[in-house]
Amino acid sequence: MADAYDYDLFTIGAGSGGVRASRVAAGHGARVAVAEEYRVGGTCVIRGCVPKKMLVYGAHFAEDLVDAEAFGWTIENKRFDWRALRDSVQGDVTRLEGLYGETLASHNVTVFHERATITGPHEVTLASGRRLTARFILVATGARPHVPDFPGNEHVITSNEAFHLEAVPRRILIAGGGYIANEFAGIFNAFGAKVTIANRSETILRGYDEGVRDRLLQISMAKGITFLFMAELEWVTKQDDGTLLVKLTGQEPAAYDAVMVATGRVPNTEGLGLETVGVELGPRGEIVVDAYSKTSIDHIYAVGDVTDRVQLTPVAIREGQAFADSVFGPGAPYAVDHSCVPSAVFSHPPIAAVGLTEGEARNKLGSIRVYQADFRPMKNVLAGRNERSLYKMIVDAATDRIVGLHMIGPEAPEILQAAAIAVKAGLTKADFDATIAIHPTMAEELVLFK
To answer: Which residues pair with residue 428 across a beta bridge?
Structure first.
């Protein structure tokens, strides 16, 4: 490595992608430093998928404790304590943050707990004023919740603040129709809040299969969640009693105890000094990169949500790994394949998907076969719960290859993880048919499609 620089790699941002890239690069022998102005671990660990999934687990008990009676259990004096769950979750977040820090330390990665900006070619300046040089600079600063511009937007919260509320709001309005909106709607509904989702379009979960998202809409409404479509926030006013009076497009003003916006995420590129060295940005402020995560400047790379390619933690990790291996490893450079990425929505019940939706497959392939399993899980039958699951398999009629799997039902993400391998590998419907089912399971529906 070149000794002309203080470090071989300087990473700005210690989230999932930045930590993976830094650790792997150090493992290849690079001298690595990381600057993180907030907490090590990034969005996923600190204020995203990890604490959210813990809240989802907590929310599941609301129905499980009711259903348990049908299985012979008597549970007396049950009650929910939001603060107990909140504090337990935050305690585990702190534990995970420490583990991330230990991982970097064990690989001799230097961590600067302050902001860093790019101030020249191969140069960064820390908030303390210290200037450092690096052979390569990696930007992994992630993204943040988008807050629309409207009068009173200072009164709303985002998913960042949702983890730290003093109490569960009695009435909460969630603006947005994506995965974050639907996940928190399920969480707060299970905890006893009256939840309203206001979506600016007519469709929730754009990009997911129509049949699956329609099923979630039906189930969510049956659980008591209200949906308002073609409704955007016009203004929010804080009233004397602390409640929020909200005006939505096409609706009369209504009062809520909290308003949460979940209207997408924007890359964190402001104030990094990218313009100083001429790094190209896209229309949403994202860093433009090539297949190998290189920016328009040869020695500057970027991975994760700040590039706005696929905003998912596992994708950021894979990009960080590929960058470190390609730039510092002994093998040939390689790029991450962003096609056929599996994803999940941890709604109630959860959704999992990989590959083409039915609509996408028809447009792309023309002739397809669609297989469906619409069933009530065994647990729901005994509990007297009418909630039904839906599994869909999309097959290319010309080749019999499975090009999409879409599921809504209990443990759908856990089931799909293994099935996604089959879709990625290009297996056929005949391959699934030849696999003997594990009975009785929900997952067996995947090999029983007729």
So the answer is: 401
Helices (H), 134-280: 159-162, 179-190, 210-222, 274-277
Among 163, 169, 235, which Cα is nearest to 196's?
A: 169
Read out DSSP for 28-46? Answer: TT--EEEE-SS-TTHHHHH
Q: Which amino acid is at 124?
A: V
What are the residue boundaries of the structural domains of the chain, listed by start? 7-145+266-328, 153-263, 349-447
- CB atoms closer than 10 angstroms to residue 364: 11
Q: Dihedral of the CA atoms 392, 408, 45, 119 (nearest 10)?
A: 50
The predicted structure's pLDDT at residue 3: 76
- Rounded CA-CA distance 21/153 in Å is 36
Q: Are 174 and 183 in contact (CB under 8 A)?
A: no
* Ramachandran category for residue 131: left, alpha or beta (phi over 0 → left; psi -120 to 50 → alpha): beta
pTM of the model: 0.95
349-447: CATH class? alpha beta
Q: Which of 260, 247, 65, 64 is nearest to 157 (CA)?
A: 260
Bridge partner list, 294: 301
- Residue 242 CB partners (closer than 8 Å, separation 6+): 257
What three-state secondary structure class fits 94?
helix
Q: What is the pLDDT of residue 1?
A: 47
Evaluate whether the domain defined by 7-145+266-328 bears CATH number 3.50.50.60.
yes
- CA terminus-to-terminus distance, the chain: 59
- DSSP H helices in 154-209: 159-162, 179-190
Q: Let me know: does 301 contact 323? Beta carbons within 8 Å.
A: yes
Q: 132: phi > 0 → left, psi -120 to 50 → alpha, else beta; which?
A: beta
Same fold, 7-145+266-328 and 153-263: yes
Angle ∠(28,31,35) on CA atoms, nearest 5: 115
Tens digit of pLDDT for each residue in 36-93? Answer: 999 999 999 999 999 999 999 999 999 999 999 999 999 999 999 999 999 999 999 9
Q: Look up 107 and say whether it is catalytic.
A: no
From 3.40.47.10, 3.40.1050.10, 3.30.720.120, 3.50.50.60, which CATH number describes the 153-263 domain? 3.50.50.60
Beta strands per DSSP E along 122-243: 123-126, 131-139, 143-145, 171-175, 194-199, 226-229, 233-238
Rounded to whole angstroms, the Cα distance separating 314 from 305 reads 11
Q: How many CB atoms lie within 10 A of CB 433?
A: 12
